[in-house]
Design goal:
This protein is α/β, with parallel strands linked by helices. It has helices at residues 40-47, 71-74, 90-101, 106-114, 119-123, 131-143, 161-176, 188-192, 212-216; strands at 2-11, 14-24, 29-33, 55-60, 75-78, 149-152, 180-185, 197-202, 205-211. The protein binds adenosine-5'-diphosphate (2 copies). One adenosine-5'-diphosphate binds at residues 41, 153. Belongs to the ABC transporter superfamily.
């Protein structure tokens, strides 16, 4: 469960996020939709405790991210797939994270399979990965600690159509087992197939929210 209330972020005179309120329930995928610069990343960074809000609050299971006893195990986060360690192989990135998080290393192989990175890909350095492969690795990293909540910023960016189809299945399955997913995109087609609910943001404000059926009726 993610709860965002009147969340606001100002950079000097510029208000990047302006009183945003929404909730994401267990068992659902919430699509967070808006054009570039709308405030999606800033909102997600505030939920994950990486950017301090200027006002309002964001909680996960009723607690601010930074006060969760084990945030890495509770919430899987993919904020910028291009930011992963370029000099390490995919397997190393996951192996090191598993070690840090106290996750059984066998989980690394399972996740490489789940996200479709084969043995050859897993042995290559991340700097040689396409953006789509980095997104797959980022999703594996986000799921490594078996979290109950996933926060994914533009994970479909760089994925090919087959990858988007694959991701839809993974996220659907995660939500159907009681997980909570917040998934951002600037493209409706990337979220509409998987999202149950949509939160549409523009200029830092929520301009529409509701079930996908409510919002897309008549469109
Ligand atoms: P989105 O993820 O929807 O593309 P962002 O949250 O990245 O949007 O950005 C929202 C607005 O806030 C944009 O106008 C962006 O330029 C601005 N912004 C984001 N981060 C900063 C920052 N660190 N300093 C100043 N402005 C920022
Ligand atoms: P995204 O594509 O995820 O929305 P951006 O490309 O907008 O991200 O921003 C990348 C990074 O630059 C982020 O850390 C963001 O906070 C920062 N940033 C974005 N806009 C500005 C800005 N106008 N001034 C300073 N930093 C910014």
């Amino acid at each position: 469960m993610i709860s965002v209330e009147h969340l606001t972020k100002r950079y000097g005179a510029h208000t990047a996020v302006d009183g945003v309120t929404f909730a994401c329930e267990p068992g659902t995928v919430t699509g967070f939709l808006g054009p570039n610069g709308a405030g999606k990343s800033t909102t997600m960074r505030m939920i994950c405790g990486l950017t301090p809000p200027s006002g309002g609050s964001a909680t996960v299971h009723g607690v601010p991210y930074r006060r969760l006893p084990n945030p890495g195990r509770e919430i899987g986060v993919l904020l910028d797939a291009s930011a992963q360690h370029p000099g390490r192989t995919g397997r190393e990135v996951l192996g090191l994270a598993a070690q840090t998080m106290g996750v059984d290393r066998r989980r690394v192989g399972e996740l490489l399979d789940l996200v479709g990175l084969n043995a050859t890909a897993a042995k290559r350095r991340v700097r040689a990965y396409s953006l789509g492969m980095r997104q797959r690795l980022g999703i594996a990293l986000a799921m490594l600690g078996d979290p109950r909540v996933l926060i994914l910023d533009e994970p479909a960016n760089g994925l090919d159509p087959e990858g988007i189809f694959w991701m839809r299945g993974v996220l659907r399955d995660f939500a159907d087992r009681g997980g909570t997913v917040l998934l951002s995109s600037h493209l409706l087609r990337e979220v509409e197939a998987v999202a149950d609910r949509l939160v549409v943001i523009g200029g830092g404000r929520v301009v529409a929210s509701g079930t996908k059926d409510e919002l897309l009726a008549g469109s």
